[in-house]
Amino acid sequence: MDGMMASLAIEAATYVVLMVVFTLLAFVSRGRDAFKWSPELRQSALTNVLMLHIGGLNGVLYLLTIVPLISLYHTVGLPVLPETAWTHVPFVLKALVALLVYDFSMYWVHRWLHTSWLWPAHAVHHSDPELHFLSWSRGHFIEQFVIAACMVFSSTWLGFGIREIFGLALLQGLHQHYVHARLDWNHGFLRHVIVSPQLHRWHHAEVEAAYDKNFASIFPFFDLMFGTYYNPGSAIAVPTGIGNNPDNNVIALILHPFREWGRMLAERKRVSAAAETA
Ligand SMILES: [Zn+2]
Ligand SMILES: [Zn+2]
C-alpha cells in the first residue's frame, strides 16, 4: 500500500513537473498563448491522463509487464550479447546503441501498427484531436504492450538488465512527451538526427499526403532510409485525429479496437458469403 501511494505521489509530481516544463517551452514558442487552454484541450488532457491509468499501462503495470517479458526472453533461451562485448564501450555510447536498435525495431513495429488488423489498437493514440504533450499518454493497453515488448526484446538482446531498460524507457518517454507538445519546432540542422515536434505532428495529421509517414520515434534518418520521411513545413495548424473518432470518451477509446475488429470480421464474413452466393 505504501509502495502504491509512493508510486502515485511520484506520478502526480511528474505531471506537475511536465506541466511546468512544457508550459515554459510553449511560452518560449508562442508567448502568452501558451497559458490559454481551450475547453477542448482541457478535455483532451484529462482523457489522456485517464487513458494512461485506465486504458493503458501506467507505471506500476509497466513494471509488471517489463519484468515478466525479460524472464520470458531468458526462459525461451533467445540470444544475448555477452557482457564482455561492452567492456571498453563508454556508457553513453552503449545507451546510444540501445536507442538505435530500439528505434530501428520500433520503426518497423510502428509501420506494422499502421496496417489493417493492428491499426484499430494504434488508432486510439492517433485519435487525439488536440495534440499536446499529454497525448503520448493516450495509448491502448494492447499497443503499449507491443511497445514494451519491443523495448525489452531489443535491449535484452544487447545484454541490458532491468535498470538499464527502465532508464531507456524513461528517456524515450520524456522525448515522446516532447514530440507531442504544441511546439512547431523542426530542429534546424539536426532535423534529420532527432525527431522534432513538427515532424511527429505531421505523423498525426489528418491530411492524405501525410498518411503513413514519419514512423521513427527518435531518429528520423530511419524514415529517410526507408522512404517515409515527410515534412512540408509548419504543422501547428494541421488537423489531427481519426475518421471514426471516439474523441475524448475513455470507455469508447478502450472498446474502440474490439468494436473495429468485430466490424471488420463481420465485413469479411459478408464479403465471403456474397462471393459464395454469386
Ligand atoms: Zn502512428
Ligand atoms: Zn504520436
Automatic annotation (TrEMBL):
Keyword terms, alphabetized: Lipid metabolism, Membrane, Oxidoreductase, Transmembrane, Transmembrane helix
Source organism superkingdom: Bacteria
Membrane topology type: Multi-pass membrane protein
Primary subcellular site in the record, as a coarse category: membrane
Gene Ontology biological-process annotations: lipid biosynthetic process; membrane lipid metabolic process
InterPro entries attached to this UniProt entry: Fatty_acid_hydroxylase, Sterol_desaturase/TMEM195
Transmembrane domains' residue ranges: 6-28, 49-71, 91-109
Stretches assigned to the Fatty acid hydroxylase domain: 96-228
Compartments reported by the entry: Endomembrane system
GO cellular component, one term: membrane
Pfam families: FA_hydroxylase
Protein's name in the database: Fatty acid hydroxylase domain-containing protein
Species of origin: Hyphomonas johnsonii MHS-2
